Amino acid sequence: MPSRNMNRAGTLLMVAIAGVAVDGTAAAQVVDPVVFSFATVGDNRQDPASPDPTTLIANPNPTTQGGAPSLTGTLLPQDAMYLQNSTAWSTIQSGIQAQNPNLLFFNGDMIYGYGRPILPTAWTSLGGPGSWYGEQAIYPDAFFEYLQYAYWRGTVSTLFSSGTYVMPVPGNHETQCSSTAAPYNGTNGAPASNPNCNTKKQGNLTGKTAYADNENAFRANMSDLIQDLVTNYRFSNVTGFFPSSPNGLTAATAPQPGGNNGPITSPQNDLTYSFDIVVQASPLIQLHFAVIDTDPAGADSTAPADWLAADFAAAKARGASNFFVFGHKPAFTYNYAAATGGSIAVGGTPGPSGLDANTTAAGTATINGVSVSYNSGPASLKAFWSVVTEYGATYFCGHEHTVNVAQYPDPTGTYAGTPYHVIVGSGGSPFDDKLINTPCTSNALGAAGNCSEPALTNPFDRYYAWALVQVHQSGAVTLHVSGFSDQFGVVQDLGEYDVSSLQLADAAAKTRRKK
Amino acid sequence: MKNQAVTIGGALAAFLLAPAIASADFVLDTGTPTGTGAPVILSDAQSFAAEFQVTAAEEVITSLAAYLTQGAGQPNDTFTFDIYSNTGFTSRPSNRPAPVYSTTGTFTANGWNTAAVNNWTLGSGFYWLALQVSSPTQTKGLDLPLESSTSTGTQAALAFASAGTSGQYAVSGADPIGVQIQGSAVPLPAAFWLFGSGMLGLGAMARRRIG
C-alpha cells in the first residue's frame, strides 16, 4: 500500500512539476533556417542648407562637454564637410552588421552631389585620376562630388569584412544637377544658379536634370562594386555565394532609349543592372535582383520598364524563384503629409516626388541620330508596376526621407496581386515630415521650445530605418523593418511582413496571378 | 511500527527539503510586458539590463528568465544572462568588472525564456541582470517587448539600462523590458538538520531511560 501511495504521490509531483515548467511558455516556434538575407536602405546624405534640427549639436564650448544635441546648433564638422549624417548612418550600419546580411543594397543619394561633375577630356579618355596629367582645370562640382563619393565608400568599407557586400543604386543626387542646390544660392559670392545645369528659367519644371557627366561620376566611383559580379574579386568571398547571369554591365545590355524605358540619351551600363544568386537547389531558391536607375539622362523620373520586363522574363526562364527590384524613386509617393494637412496631389504642397510626379506625355525624339518613340510619365509608370506585379516582385526604394511599407495593385488591371512597395529613404537625410516651427529658436522640443514634432501619419515617419529580407530554407521570405527615432534611441523592431505569398516561389500565387 | 517509521522518515525528509522550496521567491519580476511601443532588438549591437537588490545576507539564485519574441532571430538562438555588481557597471566594457555570474540562454518560443543556473549565491547589495549577445552567430536579433512602465510586476526593477555598440550602459532613457529572477534564502545545510534531529533523538532516549 505505501508503495502505491508513493507512486500516486510521485505521479502527482511529476504533474505538478510539469505544470510549473510549462507555465507561461508558448508552443515552440518552428525552426526555418535563414539561408540568405539582404538589407536595404537609402538616403544618408546630409543637406547643407536645411538639415533636420535634430541632427545639430551644440556650438563648441571648450569649458563644457561638446557634442550635446542642440536644435539651434551646428552640423558635426565632418558632416558639414562631407555632407553625410554620420551618426545615423553609423548606427544603421551597426544594426545591419548585427543582422549579418549577405548583401546591402543602398538605394541612392549616398552623396549630396547635385552638381555637374564635368571632367577634363584627357581624364575621361584616359580612364581616371591615376592616368590624368596636364594643366587642365577641374570644375569644382567634380572635385566636391568625388570627395563625397570617396567618403561614402570609406564609411561602408567595414561591411565587407563582416560579410556584407554593398550593391549601389544611383539616386537623383548622383545623376542629376540641380540648378539652385548649394552652394549655388547667390550668397557669399556664389552664382545664383549652376551655370552648367538646366534651370527653371530655361523651362525645366524642377531645375533638376540628369546628365551623362553625373552618370559617369557614379560609374567612376561605384563600377568596381558592380563589375565584381563578373570579375569576382571579392563578391563570393564576402557573400558566400556566386552571382550568375549578370545583365546590364555593358551599354548594349543596359536599357535602350524608347518605349517604356523613356527617351534615355546616355549609356545605362552599371546604372541599371541585374544578377541571380542560386541559394539552394532543393527546393530551388534562385533569387533575381534588379537595380534600376530612376533618373537616367534624358528621362528623369522614369523606370526602364521594358528593360525590366525582358530581364525578368529571361530570369524566369532560367528558373528564378524570387524577384527583387531596387530603385531610388518610389513608384507611388507616400503621403506622409496627410496628417499635417499637406497634399501630394500635383500642384499641392509638398506634391508628389516619386515616379508619379512625372506627368510628361509620350512622344518621339531623335537620340544619337535615331528617331525613337517613347512612353513617359503615367504610361511608363503603369508599365513598370505591371511588370512588378506580374512577377510578384518586391520594390525597394528611397528618395522620400521616411520609412513606409505599402502594397499596390497593377494599375493596368492585367495581373492579380498587390506587390510590396517598400520605402526606406530613411538612412539619415533630413526627414520629409519636418518639425513644426522651424528654424527652432530654442534647444528644447515641444512645450518648452518653439519647435515640436509634427502630427505623424505613421508613428515611424521620423525614424531612421532600414529593411532586412530573410530567405528561409523552406522558401518563405520575411521582411523586417528596424529603426530608431529622430532622438537617436535604441534600435526597435518596426514591423515584420511575410512577403513570400507574393513571390513566384508560391505555386498558388503563381496560378492566380494572371487575371 | 514499520508504518510509523516510514511516516517519521517522510516527515523528516519534507522537513529537510522545506526550507529550499518554501522560500523560493522573485528577487526581480517586471511582469509580462504589456507596452504598446515597438519592441527593442537584442543583438550584438545593443544590450539591455535591469537593476535589482538583494536584501538577504545571502540569496541563492535559482532561475533567470527574459520575455522574448522571435524578431529576426530563430528558435535555438542564444544570448547570455550576466549578473554584474553595481560597482563600475556603467563604465566602458574594458573598465567594467567582469560579471559575477554568466549563463547562456536559449530562445525557444515567444514568451518567457529561461536559462539554467547552478545555485548562484549573491550577498546583499545592488546588482544588474544584463542580456547580451556577443556576435551574430548567437542571434541576428531577438525582440524584447517593452513594459508600459518601469514599476510593474511583483518585484519591480530599480532601473533599466541599455548599451549600444560601444557596450557602455546608460540608464538615461532606457526602456523597461521583461525579466525575472527567482531566488531563495540560503538553506541551512542538511547536515545541520540531521545533526539537530539526532540530538533530539538522543535527548528523547535519555529522557525515556530516566523515566
The residue ranges of chain A in which pLDDT falls below 50 over 5 or more consecutive positions are 1-26, 505-512
Euclidean distance between termini CA atoms of chain B: 22 Å
**What structural class is derived from the secondary structure elements of chain B?**
alpha+beta
How many structural units, i.e. domains of chain B? 1
What would the principal axes of the Cα set say about the shape of chain A? globular
Secondary structure: number of strands of chain B: 11
Total number of helical segments of chain B? 2
Overall body shape of chain B: elongated
CATH superfamily of chain A: Metallo-dependent phosphatases
Q: In percent, how much strand structure appears in the residues of chain B?
A: 35-45%
What does this 3D model show about the protein?
The complex is a heterodimer of chains A (515) and B (211). The longest helix of chain A is centred in the first third of the chain and has 21 residues. Chain A is built from 12 helices and 17 strands. Chain A has a 7-stranded mixed β-sheet, with helices on both faces. In chain A, strands 3-2-1-15-16-17 form a 6-stranded mixed β-sheet. A two-stranded antiparallel sheet of chain A has the order 4-5. Chain A has a single domain, classed as Purple Acid Phosphatase, chain A, domain 2. The termini of chain A are far apart. In chain A, helix 10 links the parallel strand 8 and strand 9. The N terminus of chain A is likely disordered. By secondary structure, chain A is an alpha/beta fold. Chain B is an alpha+beta fold. Chain B has a single domain, classed as Jelly Rolls, CATH 2.60.120. Chain B is built from 2 helices and 11 strands, in the order αβββββββββββα. In chain B, the strands form 2 sheets. In chain B, strands 1, 3, 4, 5, 6, 7, 9, 10 and 11 form a 9-stranded antiparallel β-sheet that branches. The longest helix of chain B has 21 residues. Chain B is elongated and about 75 Å long. Chains A and B meet through helix 3 and strand 17 of A and loops of B.
